[in-house]
Amino acid sequence: MAHHKSAKKRIRQTITRTALNKSQTTRVRSTLKAVTAAITEANKEVATTKLVEAQSLLRKLAKKGVIKLGQASRKTSRLQKQVNAL
């Protein structure tokens, strides 16, 4: 357990940031699942709109450091390929 005031504050900040990051990564997973569901249904219009949302969200989280830039690029690229194949 932390004894210094600054260490206690750091623990509070870590808890807050962890909760925020978890909610954002869950949001990304839900968005990606929506895109893949639209792809499996072969619904190109819905897939493209969901893909735009997913790309935007992935870029924002990569910029903030919640996920790595390479991971965001990889997921975006793979989804884009699948949507283009429809």
Structure explained in plain terms:
By secondary structure, the chain is an all-alpha fold. The protein has a single domain, classed as Methane Monooxygenase Hydroxylase, Chain G, domain 1 (Up-down Bundle), CATH 1.20.58. 86% of the residues lie in helices and 0% in strands. It is built from three helices and no strands. α1 (5-40) runs antiparallel to α2 (44-64) and α2 (44-64) runs antiparallel to α3. The mean pLDDT is 94.
Q: Which short descriptors sum up this protein?
A:
86 residues, mainly alpha, Methane Monooxygenase Hydroxylase, Chain G, domain 1, 3 helices, elongated
Return the string of H and E elements.
HHH
Give the CATH superfamily: Ribosomal protein S20
Overall CATH architecture: Up-down Bundle
Distance between the termini: 55 Å
Layout of secondary structure:
Elements: H1 5-40, H2 44-64, H3 69-85
Helix pairs in contact: 1-2, 2-3
Question: What is the structure about, briefly put?
Answer:
The protein has a single domain (5-85), classed as Up-down Bundle (Methane Monooxygenase Hydroxylase, Chain G, domain 1). The protein has three helices and no strands. It has helices spanning 5-40, 44-64, 69-85.
